[in-house]
Design goal:
Layout (H helix, E strand, L loop, with lengths): L2 H74 L5 H21 L3 H29 L3 H9 L1 H64 L4 H12 L4 E6 L4 E4 L2 H6 L11 H5 L1 H14 L5 E9 L2 E13 L5 E10 L1 H23 L2 E7 L4 E4 L1 H7 L3 H4 L4 H5 L1 H15 L4 E9 L2 E13 L5 E10 L1 H15 L9 H18 L2 E9 L2 H8 L1 H17 L6 E6 L2 E9 L2 H14 L4 E3 L2 E3 L3 E8 L7 H17 L4 E5 L13 E2 L1
C-alpha cells in the first residue's frame, strides 16, 4: 500500500474515532447538563424545605412560650409574666405569616388552615384565663387551664405540626438520597465519557499526527471539533510545554489559545498550582495514565477541575509528552457545597432545639442523634452511632420504649408520655415515633422526637395542688373537704362506725382584724391552723372553709364522748395566748359538733348544716364553748347542754 494511502487511512481512522468520541461526549454533556439542572432544582427545594422546618419549629416554640407566660401569670399573678407572653403572641403572628408565605402546596395550605384555627382557639383560651384572673375569678381560670380543652388543642397542634414536619423531613431525606444517587450516577457517566474521550482522542491524535502534512485538513477539522467540546484539551511535549490547546482556554482564562503555546502548567495556572500538579505530570511521563482533581483561582473565582493525564507514546512505546483532558466541575462542587452547608445549618438548628431528635433504621440501630441526645444521656454521638438503641439506652429505658418502637416499625405513628431516669434526673418526656415509609409502604426506619415536659407537668401538679389547698394556711380547702367528707360517709355507712364533724370559728376575730390589721389577722389564722392540726389525730382531717371558719372531720368514733374529748382538747390548745410580732393575743374559739351514727340517710350537706347550727348555739351561749347535735344517742333533742371548756 502506498504511503499516501496509509496516511489517508490513518487520518480517516483517526477522524472517525474522534468524531465518535465527540458525539458520545456531546450526548453525555447534554445529559450531564440536564442532570445538573435537575440537581440544582433539588438543592433549591431542599433549602426551601429546611426553611419550612425552621418556621414550624419556631412556631411551636412561640406557642409554648406564650403558654408558659400565661401559666406563670396564673401561678404568680404578676404582670411581669405578661410581657414575655405578649412577645410570644407577637412572635406567633410573625411565624404564622412566614409559614403562609413558605407553604406552597395545596396539602400544606390545607394543613396551615387547620393550624391557624387551632392556634386561634388556643390564643382565645390563653386570653380567657388571663381575663378571668384579672377579674378576680381565679378558680374559674384554674378550672379552664386544668380542663382537657387546652391539652386537646395542644395535642391537635402538635399532631398537625408533627405531620407537617414529618412530611417535610421525609421530602428532605428523599431529596438528599436523590442528590446522592444523582451525584454517583453523574460521576460514573462522566468518568466513562472522559475515559472514552481520552482513549478515542489519543488514538485519533496519534493517527492524525502520523498522517503528516497531507492530514492538515483533517487536523483542522479535529481542531474545530475539539474547540466545541466542554472540555479543556491540551497537549504537552517531552519538555512539558503546551503544543496544543483548544478554545476552552479562551472561555476559561479569557486569552487566545495561541498565547499558551510553549508555556508550562506553572506559567498558565501559577507557581502554586504548578507545584501541586508536578507529581501527576511526573507520573504520566512514566507512561501511566493519571486521574485527579485540582483547583485554581482564575479571574478572581475559585475553579475546581477533574483532570485526566494520558501519556503520548511514540512508536516504541516511550512517552514523548502527554495529553490533558480537563473538566470544569466548579458548578457541581458549589452545588455540593450548598447542599453540605444546608445540612450543617439543619444540624445546628437540630442541636439547638430543646428536643431530642434521632433516627433509627429497621434494626433499631442509631443513625443520627442531635446534641440533646448527648446532653440527656451523657454519651458522645460518635460513640452512639451504629449501635443498637437497646445498648445505648440500657435495659430499663429501652424496655419502656420497645412496644412503641415495634408499633412504629409496623407503620403506626406513636405518641406516648414516659417518665425516665436520665443521669439521675427524672424527666417527663413526650415521645413521638414516626415511621419512615417509602412510596411502596415499606418502613425503612423511625424518626424519634422526644420533648421534655417536666416543667409543664410540675406546673400542672402545682396548679392541681393549689386547687385543693388553702393558700394562707396550707390546709385542705372547701373543695377538698367535700371530697373527703363524701368518702368518709361512705366508709361510715359501710363499716357501721360513727364520725363527727366539728365546725369552728375564732371568737372576736373581726375585732383583731380591725384593730391590728389584716397582716396580724392572717398570722392569727395561720397560728390557729397550726394549733388546731396539732391538737387532733394524724388521721383526722382539718380544713379551712373561708375567713375564720375551720372544720375537723373525725372518723372511727365509738361514742359521742370521743367527739367531745376532741373538742375539749382543741379548746385547751387555744387557751394559751398567741405571741405574734411582740403582741400577746388571746384568741378563743367556739365549736359546733354534729354526729353521724353510721346509718344511711344523712348526707354531707346536712351534716355540715347541723355542725354550723351547733356552732351558732355555742356562740349564742357565750363563745369559747362547744355544742353537740344531736343531744342524745337515739337522736332525740336538738342540742345537748352547752359546755364550757
Amino acid at each position: 500500500m502506498r504511503p499516501g494511502a496509509r496516511a489517508t487511512d490513518s487520518m480517516g481512522a483517526g477522524v472517525t474515532l474522534l468524531l465518535c468520541a465527540l458525539l458520545a461526549m456531546a450526548l453525555v454533556t447534554a445529559l450531564l447538563a440536564w442532570r445538573a439542572q435537575h440537581a440544582v432544582a433539588m438543592v433549591e427545594r431542599q433549602g426551601l424545605v429546611s426553611e419550612q422546618l425552621r418556621g414550624l419549629n419556631q412556631l411551636m416554640i412561640a406557642l409554648l412560650n406564650a403558654e408558659t407566660g400565661q401559666r406563670g401569670y396564673l401561678l404568680t399573678q404578676r404582670d411581669a409574666y405578661l410581657e414575655p407572653h405578649a412577645e410570644a403572641m407577637g412572635e406567633l403572628d410573625l411565624r404564622l405569616d412566614e409559614l403562609a408565605r413558605m407553604l406552597s402546596t395545596a396539602s400544606q395550605q390545607q394543613r396551615l388552615v387547620r393550624v391557624l384555627g387551632l392556634v386561634r382557639d388556643k390564643r382565645e383560651e390563653l386570653q380567657r384565663s388571663i381575663d378571668l384572673v384579672r377579674a378576680g375569678r381565679h378558680e374559674q381560670a384554674l378550672a379552664l387551664v386544668l380542663s382537657d380543652q387546652g391539652k386537646r388543642e395542644m395535642d391537635s397542634l402538635r399532631q398537625e405540626l408533627g405531620s407537617l414536619v414529618a412530611d417535610l423531613r421525609a421530602e428532605r431525606a428523599g431529596l438528599a438520597t436523590a442528590l446522592g444517587s444523582e451525584t454517583g450516577t453523574t460521576r460514573l457517566m462522566l468518568l466513562l465519557a472522559l475515559s472514552l474521550l481520552a482513549i478515542f482522542s489519543t488514538l485519533a491524535l496519534w493517527q492524525v499526527l502520523r498522517g503528516g502534512a497531507r492530514l492538515r485538513e483533517a487536523e483542522g477539522r479535529l481542531r474545530r471539533i475539539a474547540n466545541h467540546v466542554p472540555l479543556l484539551i491540551t497537549q504537552f511535549d517531552r519538555q512539558q510545554r503546551i503544543i496544543f490547546a483548544n478554545e476552552q482556554v479562551r472561555r476559561l482564562y479569557g486569552i487566545d489559545p495561541s498565547e499558551v503555546l510553549g508555556k508550562t502548567v506553572a506559567d498558565v495556572r501559577g507557581a502554586d498550582a504548578g507545584q501541586h500538579l508536578q507529581p501527576f505530570i511526573d507520573q504520566v511521563m512514566t507512561g501511566e495514565a493519571v486521574r485527579f482533581e485540582s483547583s485554581s483561582v482564575i479571574q478572581g473565582r475559585q475553579h475546581h477541575f477533574e483532570q485526566h493525564y494520558v501519556p503520548d507514546l511514540d512508536a516504541e512505546g516511550r512517552p514523548r509528552g502527554f495529553f490533558s483532558v480537563t473538566l470544569d466541575i466548579t458548578e457541581r462542587k458549589e452545588a455540593a457545597a450548598r447542599a453540605s452547608a444546608s445540612e450543617r445549618r439543619l444540624a445546628v438548628i437540630a442541636d439547638a432545639l430543646p428536643v431530642l431528635i434521632a433516627y433509627l433504621d429497621q434494626d433499631l440501630r442509631l443513625h443520627y442523634a442531635n446534641e440533646t441526645f448527648h446532653r440527656w444521656l451523657g454519651m458522645e454521638a460518635s460513640a452512639m452511632l451504629g449501635l443498637p438503641l437497646a445498648e445505648v439506652l440500657g435495659p430499663a429505658l429501652y424496655g419502656q420504649r420497645e412496644p412503641c418502637l415495634r408499633a412504629a416499625l409496623a407503620g403506626e405513628r406513636v405518641q406516648v408520655e414516659l417518665s425516665s431516669d436520665m443521669q439521675g434526673r427524672l424527666l417527663h418526656l413526650q415521645n413521638d415515633y414516626i415511621p419512615d415509609q417509602r412510596a411502596d409502604g415499606q418502613v425503612v426506619g423511625i424518626f424519634v422526637l422526644s420533648t421534655d415536659v417536666t416543667t409543664l407537668k410540675q406546673a400542672q401538679a402545682q396548679l392541681a395542688e393549689m386547687a385543693r389547698t388553702d393558700a394562707l394556711t396550707g390546709l385542705p380547702n372547701r373543695r377538698e373537704l367535700d371530697q373527703r367528707l363524701a368518702l368518709a360517709l361512705v366508709r361510715a355507712q359501710r363499716e357501721g362506725w360513727k364520725l363527727a364533724l366539728l365546725f369552728l370559728d375564732l371568737d372576736r376575730f373581726k375585732a383583731i382584724n380591725d384593730e391590728q390589721g389584716h397582716a396580724v389577722g392572717d398570722a392569727v389564722l395561720q397560728a390557729f391552723a397550726q394549733r388546731l392540726q396539732a391538737s387532733v389525730r394524724a388521721t383526722d382531717s382539718v380544713a379551712r372553709l373561708a375567713g375564720d371558719e375551720f372544720v375537723v372531720l373525725v372518723e372511727g368514733l365509738n361514742e359521742a364522748a370521743d367527739a367531745i374529748a376532741v373538742a375539749e382538747k382543741v379548746l385547751q390548745a387555744m387557751d394559751e395566748p398567741m405571741l405574734l410580732d411582740g403582741l400577746a393575743l388571746q384568741v378563743g374559739t367556739s365549736i359546733g359538733i354534729a354526729l353521724h351514727e353510721g346509718r344511711a340517710g344523712l348526707d354531707a350537706a346536712q351534716l355540715l348544716a347541723q355542725a354550723d347550727a351547733a356552732l351558732y348555739e355555742a356562740k349564742r351561749a357565750g363563745r369559747q364553748r362547744y355544742a353537740l347535735y344531736p343531744a342524745s344517742a337515739d337522736g332525740t333533742g336538738a342540742y345537748s347542754t352547752l359546755k364550757s371548756k
